Amino acid sequence: MIQLKQISLRYHSEAVVDCLHNINLEISKGETVLLTGPSGCGKSSVIRMINGLIPHYYEGDVTGTVSVKGRNIAQIPLYETAQFVGTVFQNPKSQFFNVDTTSELAFGCENMGIPEEEILKRIHLTVHQFGIEKLMDRNIFNLSGGEKQEIASASIAVSGPDIILMDEPSANLDHEAIEHLRALIKIWKKQGKTIVIAEHRLSYAWDLADRIIVMHQGRIVETFDHEQKKKVSQNKLREYGLRSIQREEIVPIWLTDHLSEIGEGITLKNFSFAYHPKTPVFKVNKMNIPTGEIVAIVGENGIGKTTFLHCLCGLKKKCKGQVVWNRKIYKRKARMKQMFIVMQDANHQLFTESVLDEVLLSMKKPNIDRAREILKSMDLLEYGDRHPISLSGGQKQRVAIASAIASEREILLFDEPTSGLDYGHMMQVSKIMKKLQQMGKTILVVTHDHELIQNCCTRIIKLEAYEGSASGE
Predict the structure, then answer these.
(1) Strand residues in 73-162 grouped as ranges (E)
(2) pTM of the full predicted structure?
(3) Measuring CA to CA, how many Å separate 205 from each of 184, 247, 332, 376, 420?
(4) Residue 332 belongs to a domain with what CATH number?
């Protein structure tokens, strides 16, 4: 079904490193393959080779051949490849063509000339399978990152290609959404689809995969077949820098009572935000966040976690209520000077021509030696002269975190900071957060990553679905 033969790749825009080295890979019809490895190991590049984005969109020097269903992918146009290969990208926004969700689900089928009655039938079936009825007829721009990921996955399901490629599909999904994703993969397997999943979060897909391919620095370094993967130990996975394969739901573990009685730290009073007066995104009557703690903010996709962070740091002008920090009221503009946010999509806060300049930009007084020290702590020093946009998703995320550290702000906000990170770099972020905590920083982190929470968070705030309220646990 899919064959990569002696594939090597060097991107024209990333001439510093070879991205792929002599990749030989065959994937049979109906097989589910889990492609994993550390951030920047080449997983996404393999996906791009199979769907034809290399060489038709991403330019580079390529040797070897890629054939899919007996056809040389480099020799056929993308619109033909799209008829039998569907891709869920790492950044779901990159594949949207419509403003509303229902039209997005129909878009691929419409391009293939499928009759309207059949399109509507497919949409109805997919929406039911995904459990995303509440996301229909919505403006895509008003969805959370996790909800966008669900729509991107559903749009591929509606089109019904024989081969489905998924690049970090679980990155921003909550536990329930991941269960929907698992259910869909099971359905595709029963339908005989050929599935290739590039992932860091292994737990939900490990038992579903027929084969595990481990990559490192552009090479395939290990393969586990269906029987071998059952015997793999967690220590073996750690040697490759891989995440846990244990399936766990984020639950409140560190319980703290009487949050409202804590005087120091951040206090929110009548804190709320609404796009429309009658439908608040969230509403908090009173809540305290103690100084010097690492606070996890959890909750379902679309509940308002990202909006909560944006309001707290002053990015939303229409946010109501008071923010009191150490008994002093801080207005919106004052909060922007005291807080630094690392956004869910790191592309939104990369502005300069080099990674080093990006870190220097966040400093009150630019200090090259200090900037290099921070980059070294994030395993980014060798990329100091690279353009930030040329990096992998996980590397961009670490650049944004490095900028937050360089800002020296007292309150740091992180929105899904480990969504594109492997185990080693997740642990690295965890250690850095604990070090910042020891320096007296207050850290709030929106996350679905139970490993991050277990390793560094001291308190959990859960945003509840009921009227968007919040509770500290």
Answers:
(1) 85-88
(2) 0.78
(3) 11, 10, 42, 33, 16
(4) 3.40.50.300
